[in-house]
Each structure stands twice: as structure tokens, then as C-alpha cells.
Design a protein that fits this description.
Chain lengths: 312, 263
Amino acid sequence: MLSESADIVSAMSTLAIEVEGLTKRYDNLTAVNSASFSVPRGTICGFVGPNGAGKTTTIRMLLGLIAPSTGTGTVLGHPITEPEKYLASVGAMIEGPAFYPALTGIENLKVLATMGGIPIERAESLIDLVGLSGRGGDKYKTYSLGMKQRLGIAAALLPNPALLILDEPTNGLDPEGIQEVRDLLKKLASEGTTVFVSSHLLSEIEIISEYIVMLRKGEVVFAGAIDELLLNQKPTIIVRTASESDLAKVAEIAKSQGHHVTIRHGEAHIEGPHEYAAILNKSAFDAGIVLSQLTPTLPNLEETFFEMTGGR
Amino acid sequence: MFKVFFAEWRKLRRPTLFFGTFAAALFFNGLITSFIYLMIDSPQGNGDRGRTITREVLALAGGSVTGFASIGGLLGIIALCVFAAQSAQEYTYGTLRNLLVRQPRRLTLLMGKYAAMKSFALLLTVVNAIVSIAVSVYLSDRAKVTTDLWFTSAGLSEIAHTLVNVYISIIFYAIIGITLGILLRSPISAISIALVWILIIENLIGAVKPVTLDWMPGNQFAAIAEGGTPLVSYSHALILGSSYVLLALLVSSFLFTKRDVAN
């Protein structure tokens, strides 16, 4: 009776993933430090962070592959300590595709389908879905990086998942392939699948995701809706000067007028609304400085990411 | 566990692995069995380490499987290499993480792998027994060996006993292979350590101090296949061999279920 109630609660949970204080420590290293975030069902959630931030470790903990040192979590309403209760509804590609080189693409999928009690015919239909028609019978070791990636996505889709966890799914794909994956993820989300996708292509994440979890050095620096994140960011004006030595002078002018300035790669990034561009232009002209670029920009994910994770 | 069993067979049945393993086993089987009959009058002997297997011994009820019993240890070493590679490759290819996502009950996954291994070993045993007996029958005339007792009820009983002994020996070797694969997570390390131990270290130590052969795992497994040897009794080999295998099973189960899968 109790178990039945628990199942109903799990089924009704509006969160696909919820973790609280999740931590993974190795001998002298804390790979993930007290991570807390949640991912609503039926959404696409981006999972971003610099290399070594702890993304893959977090994903492995969600899949029951590694045990957390401390903290709790649920996936599809079930605790992450009991992966057998939810993994039948989860598809995953972790750290890129991994298959048996001497088996064909289709046979690799059939191994996993047989293991998971999934009808074999599904493997054949997924080969077509991911654009590997005609190559499914070739050995995996003969595949290009893009084809391997497509097979990895097919394997993740095998159980017709309620939650799809993909680690860098567009790695090695050509622009057409990236567009196909993007469309596929949007289609799956529209059908109710929750997609949790990590990528270093922040523009990609910005296009397809509604939610985002940002990690830095094992800690969550932001978790929530992308719109909410970007709304909290100030617009920026990017300035270049005709003479590089004048860039510092422009920065001084902006600072004296109460604006925060950072200089990166020969550009001054000045926080301020687009109306301030005209004021800055006049101030620079009065100081005898010729501007070669004056571009007001709205905050984007990449800028925000670098600001929050202290990158670049 | 049945799902794991059938999934494992999808890997085991691939032609290069399946036919490669059987071809290697049958080649050595044919070679060693033929050697016993073709070199029967050789002063250098026709058995293992210069031993002589006489016409009288071969004419006994168990004569038809003398060759098969001699290659039992070799079949075991082949099985050890195959299954050490199979289990270690799951780590080097990173495929274990995929398997565990589809079958998160780790002990079920491991037991399914063991079940698949046992069926593969059974096939390896039966096919090699048939071929060895066929070669023995074919060469018995030429070697002037009487086969009257080979297929009597006593002869068939000997065949059954040898089949079981070789099967147990192959399974024991394969369990050690799987355990080394899981422990070392590298096919090359697992296979080379096993081969160096069984083929070189055990024999070196045994040559210096023969009494140690009573305790060496490889020697026990080979003795089980032969139904006991002049140095090691069958019951001693079976009890001690089973103890080693039980320990290996405990180690592999513990590592497989408790260790983080980080590659």
C-alpha cells in the first residue's frame, strides 16, 4: 500500500531531477560540492560549466554509476540510491558514445535493447531516425565521429525515455547534424520528454534550453530559467578604439561616469543601457578619441556564463 | 538475468571471437590428441612433459578421452583469456556505463555474464570432446590401440566424467579471467598477469619446490581437468580449486557492485 502511494507520488512529481547538497569527494579532490538544483519535467535544461567543473560526475551520480559522498537526489521521483526504479525510463549518453568496435551499429543497439528488455525492432527504427540508414550493418569501428555520435543518441533513445540525459550530443556533428539534433530534442520535449543536456556550445544551449544549471569548480552558480538569468544581467556596450592605446582612456571615461568596465581581447565591455552609447561617443570625441566600434549588446548566455564562472 | 544472458551472447557470437576461439581450441586439441597417437612409440614420450602414454593405457575404458583430458588445462587458459578480455574491455571501451544504465542491478548483470560464460564454456567443452574423441578413433587403428572398451558403459561413464571435469576446469579458469578483468580493468594486464602466473611463475616455483604445486591455482585447475594427477589428487584439486574460485567470485562481486564506474 505504502509502495503504491510512493509510486503515485513519483508519477505526479513535477520535477524530473531534484538534487540537494550533492557532493562527490575523491581523496584530495571535491569534484562536486553541495550541488542543489531541480529540473522541471517536460523541459530542456542545459547543463554548462568549464572543463572539470563536475558536470559528468553529477550526471554519473544521477545515473547511479558513482555513489555520492553526501547529499540526496531524486530522478523521476525516485531516490538516486535506487537507480533500478527509474533507469528503465531514462536514456543517457555520457562522455560521448561508447560501443563495441567489432560489432555493427545495429548489433550494438540490439545488445542494449536485449539488456533492457526493449523490443529489437526499436533498434532498427532508431537507426533510421538518427540518419544512419544504410550504415547500421557496418562495424562501429568504421564509423566517423559524427556517426558514432548519432549511434550514441540512438542508444539513449532506445527506452523511449521520459528523461533524456545527453553529454555533449553535438560533438563531431556537421551543421546539418547539429540542426537535426536540435530539432529532435525540441520535438521530444514537446512530446513530454525531459531533456538534460550538457554542452560547451553555449549558443546551442541558449537556443534550445528553457532552464539552465551552471557549474563552476563543482558548485552550482545558477540554476533556473534562462530568461530569469538573462533578465538579471545588465546590457553591455562593446567599444573598440582606432588606436589601441586609447582603449584605457575610454575605460577611464566610462568609469568616471559610473559604469563598470572590463577589457578583453582589445575590447572594452562597458555595462550600461544602449542610450549610454551616444553619451560615451560624445565624451570620447571630446577627448579626441576615435572609436572604431560602438555596439550596444543585450546580455547573452556566453557573456553571462563567463561572468559567472570567471572564465576568459 | 535472462536478458543479460542473451545480450552477452550477442557479443560472444560475433564471428571473430566465436570462430577464432573455437579454431584456436580445435587446432591445439587436434595437435595434442594426434601427438598422443602418432608419437606412441617415440622415446621422447607422447604426453605432457615427456610422459609416455602406452597402448595399454589408451586401450582402457577412458582411453577415448585421454587426449581430451590432456588439453583441458589449455582449453581453460583459452577461456581465461577470452573472458578476461571480455570483462576488462567493458571498462576500456566505456561500454559498462551503457550496460548499467539498461541494467542497474549490478549483481544481476554480473550473474548474467557468468551464466553466458558457463554456456560458452559448455559449448567449448562438448565440441572439443567430440573432435578429440573422433581424432582418437580415427588414429587408433594406425597406432594399433584397441578401442573395444571405449564405448562400453564403463567407457561412456569415463567420457561423461572427463567431460564434467574439463567443464569444471574451464569454468574455474574463466571465473579467474573475469575476476582479473574486473580487478585490473585492462585486457592486456589481466591476460598477461594470468598467463605469466600460470605458465611461468607456477612452474618456476614448482621446479624449485615441488610441494608448492599442491597449492598453486593453475595446477589445481589442470589437475581437475585430468581427473587428478600423480602429484595432486582429484579431491584435493577440487576442494582447493573451488576455494580459490569462491574467493575470486567474492572479489569480483564486491568490486563490480561497489566500485564507482568512472570511465
